[in-house]
Amino acid sequence: MQGLNIDNAYDRRAEYQAAHLLNHTVRRGMKWRETPEVYQVSVLNFIYDKESDSGVSEYRMRRKDGKTLSRRMAIVFVELPKYSGESERVEDLTAAEKWCKFLLYADDSARRSLVEEICRSEGGIMAASGILTKISQDDVNWLRQTNRDLWERDQLSIKGYVEELTQELAESQAVIEEKDAVIEEKDAVIEEKDAVIEEKDAQLLAQMREIESLRAKLANKKSSGIVIRGFS
Question: Among 98, 90, 89, which residue's Cα sits nearest to residue 125?
Answer without folding.
Answer: 98
